[in-house]
Design brief:
By secondary structure, the chain is of the alpha/beta class. It has six helices and eight strands. The structure holds adenosine-5'-diphosphate and magnesium ion (MG).
Length: 200
Amino acid sequence: MIELKSVSKHYRLSGDVLVKAVDDLDLTIQDGEFAMIVGRSGSGKTTLLSLIGGLTRPTQGSVRVDGVDLWGLDDANQSRFRAEKIGFVFQIPSLLPTLTVLDNVKLPTMFARQHDRVGEKALGLLQMVGLSEKGHAYPSQLSVGQQKRVALARALVNGPEIVLADDSYGDPHSGTRQLCDEGANDGQRRPQRVSESVRL
Ligand SMILES: Nc1ncnc2c1ncn2[C@@H]1O[C@H](COP(=O)(O)OP(=O)(O)O)[C@@H](O)[C@H]1O
Ligand SMILES: [Mg+2]
């Protein structure tokens, strides 16, 4: 379960300008729930996803994932918790240019405890997103749509229970929608919880 209580993220810009990207938000997402966050550009969707995923520290309030306060953990445990529980699909694929596609997909396993059959899993995920023949290519040799699908495979490699996908479900190239819709019959593959941010 994801639980946000009175969560705010305010940015103070130069001068006295205060941007309330997220303001005093209570939000609960149950296990197995598929939640979509919809709002216009600048309304705080990306900020909210990064708060849920522990990438951004709230200026106020608490964020708990399965009862764990992410900001109560030390750095090492926070990184591991994130790597094992949460898969991120960022709005921009942000693959590492010097690693092959396969190594990009494998990368998050370095931060998790499970290291079994990593190559096999990564290949399986590349196959799932239709890119099994691109494992040895470099990101620059792929189209942006293909890079997005690699980013989805990367988000799933640790078998996360939560997938946070930013501006992704509505993007036909990302593969996220296919995963959510078709994966409904495949308990193995389907992440329990998907949070999503949709651009308007
Ligand atoms: N690092 C930052 N510093 C200052 N303001 C920020 C920062 N990140 C986001 N914002 C501001 O917070 C608001 C919400 O941004 P964001 O969460 O990216 O919105 P969305 O994803 O819905 O388009 C915007 O006004 C944006 O300018
Ligand atoms: Mg955004």
